[in-house]
Amino acid sequence: MRALRHVLRPLVHLLVARQITLPFLTNLLKGLFVEVAERDFPIAGKRQTDSRLSLLTGVHRKDIKRLRAELRDGLAVPPAVSLGSQLVARWNADYADETGAPVPLPVQDTEGGGPSFEEFVASVSTDIRARSVLDEWLRLGVVSFDEHGRVALDSGVFAPRKGMEEMLSYFGRNLHDHIAAASHNVLGESPPFV
């Protein structure tokens, strides 16, 4: 467990930094557990049942049935839609001026009756307080305060940087190969990989 925590810590750091949440990761991992168990751990001459996959993975049979259907239908795991991404998309769609630029929102309800940042966040999720979102977004540079003290969105912050797709491709390939070789060796399979 100590080695696993050590290996996963930088990955979790990256996920939190990019607002990929635990519920999204949990669903992704369930799908991967089912996929790997089904493909890599068959019993010769026997069909892989939902019950056996549940035993191997710890994933509930109900989830296994759904995940196997998604794999058969060729459905990819949906893209990570973090609360931050949902909020930015909603702000750009519902609170934009005639040019399409996001309009600044007052932090709290005002006498003018217009939408506030607090109301806006609550309209998307009541699980997280608007102040927590605001503090995190200020830290990340997603928002700033304008000259009137309103919250102004910089939607360009959520746009991927140039070359990001290539960096992520190398990131995934290199880490996959290294972990696959190390796992092969730890499992005692031969010949060992250098």
Give a quick precis of the structure.
The protein has helices spanning 2-17, 22-40, 50-57, 61-72, 83-94, 117-124, 130-140, 164-186, and strands at 143-145, 151-153.
Would you give an account of this structure?
With 194 residues, this protein is mainly α. It has eight helices and two strands; from the N terminus they run H-H-H-H-H-H-H-E-E-H. It has a two-stranded antiparallel ribbon. The longest helix is centred in the last third of the chain and has 23 residues, at 164-186.
SSE blueprint:
Layout: H1 2-17, H2 22-40, H3 50-57, H4 61-72, H5 83-94, H6 117-124, H7 130-140, E1 143-145, E2 151-153, H8 164-186
Helix pairs in contact: 2-3, 2-4, 3-4
Order of helices and strands: HHHHHHHEEH
Instruction: List the uncertain runs.
Output: 76-80
Distance between the termini: 24 Å
Mean pLDDT: 85
Radius of gyration: 22 Å
Number of helices: 8
Share of helix, binned? 55-70%
The coarse overall form would be elongated
Task: Please count the beta strands (DSSP E, at least 2 residues each).
Answer: 2
Main sheet: strand order = 1-2
- Beta-strand content bin: under 5%
Provide the descriptors you would attach to this structure in a database record.
194 residues, mainly alpha, two-stranded antiparallel ribbon
